Amino acid sequence: MAQLDTREKLEILADAAKYDASCASSGTAKRNSKDGKGLGSTEGMGICHAYAPDGRCISLLKILLTNSCIFDCHYCINRKSSNVRRARFTAKEVVDLTIAFYKRNYIEGLFLSSGIIASSNYTMEQMVEVARSLREDHHFRGYIHLKTIPDADPELVHQAGLYADRLSINVELPTAGGLKRLAPEKDGVRIETAMSEVKASIVDGKDAKAKYKSAPRYAPAGQSTQMIVGADAATDGDIVKKASTLYDRFGLRRVYYSAFSPIPDASAVLPLQRPPLMREHRLYQSDWLMRFYEFQPHEVVAAADDATGMLPLDIDPKLAWALKFRGSFPVDVNRAPREMLLRVPGLGVKAVNGILASRRWRRLHLADVARLTVSVAKLRPFIIAEDWRPVVLSDTADLRPLIAPKPRPKQMEMFA
After folding, report:
1. Residue 19 confidence (pLDDT)
2. Residues 67 and 192 in one domain
3. Do both 196 and 326 map to the same domain?
4. Which residues form the Elp3/MiaA/NifB-like radical SAM core domain (predicted)?
5. What is this structure's pTM?
6. Selection from 99, 103, 205 nearest residue 144 by Cα
7. Which of 16, 32, 179, 411 is the most buried (most CB within 10 A)?
């Protein structure tokens, strides 16, 4: 490998990290250095690199330790057989960069991932050393997210959780068949075993912290994972079921979805075109339905097309479910329970909370509901209010053209 200066390494390894979607910092324990002790904070202003799930702008130094790898996963641009320019940071270089960027108010924390350098254990040791040095040598109190390696020794992964706010282990693909076909060197069972061990450590850490104030925190922001969408034949239904299983079994904070992007010198087993980015967006929406709107996985899957198993791209999954199960509507906003109000297209969690609070004091009219949402037009066919009953809309055979958003003009590609 040719000798590169730090700026050249940063250019290569920051660009190589762009395929990792799971870099949000929501849920971390709040720390600051206002008392004059230590360095860094999980809060503050800086250049925005990502958005947290709760809407906060966060800034992270997001890099790979190296883009060299001994694995040859078909979908990865940094795979062993890929013809890309390689670079590698030492642990000290990553630490120095993080501190330098933080002191310039560029970042609030570090997101560190890596290819496999010599072995899983060696690579994991280097990543742990970065986090250890930041915390112990420099008293860094900002956010640290480590992308751990499932094949590494469990003790190394455990050490990572003692220094990092969040750990993530990628399941890569939603089906075992897809993983075996596109990443034959990775073991799905081992990946899930590592995720289970991290979950157990998080639970043990919380129990110890409840009993002893001096107990160390273990990955206080939990663990997350990422799935590639569109690289294999998995349907949206398959992906939703997999995500639900991961949430239930491993207590994940987030499942991230990354639309497959064609790469240079791609393997012949990969699709030639990337999936629509709207597909990734619809999967995130379905994820929110399960996490915040009390939808069960089978209900979200039911919103998909029966023949293809794909969620519609022109309307959101909640509206698709409502149109498919019109027998559940209209819902009386003055009498319906919370779980049914959450199923009304156009009503968010805050709007539902507002309805429940307001109706304790008076009967709600359509105008009252309209003040709680962006557009009442989407709501009309699905609700009953004191002065509103959708008689004509309820009898309309094909409701979709009346309430579906108008398609946006397709943007032409500059270099098509």
Report:
1. 72
2. yes
3. no
4. 59-286
5. 0.85
6. 99
7. 16
